[in-house]
Amino acid sequence: MYIWLTIIAGLAVLPFLLKTVFDPYFGQDCSYIFKAIKLGIRLQKYKKKKPFYSILDCFLDTVKKQPNKTFLHFEGTSHSYIEVDKQSNKVARALKTHANLKEGDTVALFMGNEPSYACIWLGLAKLGCATALLNFNIRSKSLLHCFSCCGAKVIIAAAELKEAVEEVLPTLKQRGISVYLLSEECSVEGINPLSEHITQASDTPLSADLRANITSKSPALYIYTSGTTGLPKAALVTQERVWTASFIQAVSGVTSQDVFYINLPLYHSAGFLIGLTGAIERGITVVLRRRFSASQFWEDCRRHNVTVMQYIGETMRYLCNTPMKDNEKDHKVRIAIGNGVRSDIWREFLNRFGDVAVRELYAATEGNIGFINYTSKIGVVGRVNFLHRRLFPYTLIKFDIEKEEPVRNSKGLCIQAMKGEAGLLVGKITKRSPFVGYAGNDQQTEKKRLRDVLQTGDLYFNTGDLLRIDEQNFVQFQDRVGDTFRWKGENVATTEVADILTMVDCIVEANVYGVKVEGHEGRIGMAAVKVEEGKEFDGASTFSQVASYLPAYARPRFIRIQSSFEMTGTFKMKKVTLVEEGFNPAAVQDPLYFLDPAKKTYVPLTEEIYSSINTREIKL
Questions:
Q1: % the chain with pLDDT above 90
Q2: How far is residue 387's CA from residue 392's CA, in Å, rounded to a whole number?
Q3: Which residue segments constitute the domains of the chain, with CATH numbers given?
């Protein structure tokens, strides 16, 4: 009897053993699918709870379970879960009293990385308010736009950003927007100091009735992403979406014993959703830093026993560019979660800093499809598996780079890309994988919807990214299409940069694009410009204009002077040839200029400068 049971059990297991032999990733696929199913069941459970169980409720439960565990390490000071909870209670009470906030209101948060960021967000969540996470690099027109599109009536700004707020204060007053500064005092009329009110407020818990009507579909956050409009787009992040993003740490293998290092900006999805809310979901300790520092990175990791780090492609490259040391592998980091790292940098990182499980991912704040590389395969962002594709239907379709549009057949439907062929990634819009869109921007929301893809009447989300699936079912990121490119971990909208350039007195037209630079991730900004007849290009005025209105990562480092632009049949400026030709003065006949920050002007791009860029003597 036992012999027969053993034989039957062996025959049942045999297919799995054979599959493992012929597919070395089968076990990892199964592990990923099992985790995904468990997390999916958890999310459904939270959604069915009355009232809805949010990430805030998860935080409050963690406070009860481990009140004295450190939640945030920041600049030599530790803040426990209970301390952050009490401080967020004080924030909520101060804002409820002085800003008259109530459930459903939206508040814009304009500050850099610090513990107050988490405390204010949690305080707002306790009032049932959504938070708009503003990029602290934006100014002027972009800053004002961010309020109007998300409907924020209140802005809370860090003390060091007072001047940026003052620039737009007259318009804010005109629009009836209340301005609060995290400062004890402020002499500027119309800017209200908030710190004293927070200090004097009670830290006792607030009633859950204040947020009783929050559901899984309620707005939780607005996170801004660049687009072809030239202004930031407010991606609406629902309460359900917060949970989904927070699960990335769990899928990556992070446990409740880990210590997570955040040095990416909290206004980004990576730092806030994957990092901060992911840490709350796991109940772990976060080491928070104002900004990334390559020279201090490993010292921070050693000092705080960091076990999980975040990265973007530039982070990895900067770390690999630091001088080599004997103790480079002397750390406890075991997992790295992020995106945008090149294969060569990936290999160099592992060779220098040890056996770290790199969890490269692909996702977009507003998107309905994403991947994560849960294997040890270098250079990929994920794997195709039946469960993922069934729950979140997606496909790669052929895309015409020149026309910047999908290729369609005689029936008007898109054509699926072949295996191994780069194609535009599109995700089917369903109840389970919705595309909520951009707040206050129906035009841009509609632009991301792609109709009649595989069947007449179907609807897909257009990621704007080219990916490919290889013969082993690994997913590889190829490139971005359209009017946005990525540099220094930030999206740069070409139309916004072009608008700024054409405000220069001598420039009448500008065609902005990103070009590759050897040894760097992403694409750096370059602009072909047409100078007004009878005038000469003014490098100093152009520098002054871009420095005043654009953050450093969005300023075009190269300028190409052209007498005319090549246009498409629909009167769009052609960029493909310009991108291919790049900024090599030996290959480009037009005059070229280079942004020199030290001289505060654009200088002629010589062979010597070009060589120094390629040898990295000139830092970009």
A1: 78
A2: 8
A3: 2-44 (no CATH), 49-291 (3.40.50.980), 386-431+448-478 (2.30.38), 484-614 (3.30.300.30)
